[in-house]
Amino acid sequence: MKRFVILPYAETDIKNTITFYKEKTDGLEKDFIKVIDSSFLEISKNPDAFPKVQDDIRKFVVRKYSFCIYYIDRSEAFYILAVFHDRRNPKNWHKRRIIK
């Protein structure tokens, strides 16, 4: 299976969300991690199934937690650009460094 490279901004997104859920309800952060892991698996199984939002950037919607995973599929890896709650301004991830 192709590897996932979680870029620093996306890693911060995930860590901040885990911290938020851990403080909110005990155990909720573990469920969030499982859902994100299964989302990565789903992306890897059919990466072209999800809509392009800009150039070659695709968006996977994590319905259970209302998050979106923005990623780029390259031959060597999937690059995760952002893991945003859908209520956040999606234009914020556009400011992030994009993989060429």
Give an overview in words:
The chain has 2 helices and 5 strands, in the order βααββββ. The chain is of the alpha+beta class and about 100 residues long. The protein has a single domain (about 5-95), classed as YaeB-like fold, CATH 3.30.2310.20. It has a 5-stranded mixed β-sheet with strand order 1-5-4-3-2. β3 and β4 (about 65-75) form a beta hairpin. α1 (about 10-25) runs antiparallel to α2. The longest helix has 18 residues, at about 30-45. It starts with a strand and ends in a 15-residue tail after the last strand. About 20% of the residues are buried. The mean pLDDT is about 90.
Secondary structure: elements and pairs:
Blueprint: E1 3-6, H1 8-24, H2 28-45, E2 52-54, E3 57-62, E4 67-73, E5 77-85
Helix pairs in contact: 1-2
CATH topology: YaeB-like fold
Q: H/E order of the elements?
A: EHHEEEE
Which range best describes the helical content: under 10%, 10-25%, 25-40%, 40-55%, 55-70% or over 70%?
25-40%
Indicate the structural class: alpha+beta
CATH class value = Alpha Beta
Write down the overall geometry. Answer: globular
Reported for the largest beta sheet, the result is:
5 strands, mixed
List segments where confidence is low: pLDDT < 50 over at least 5 consecutive residues. none
| Beta-strand content | 25-35%
Taken together, the total number of domains comes to 1
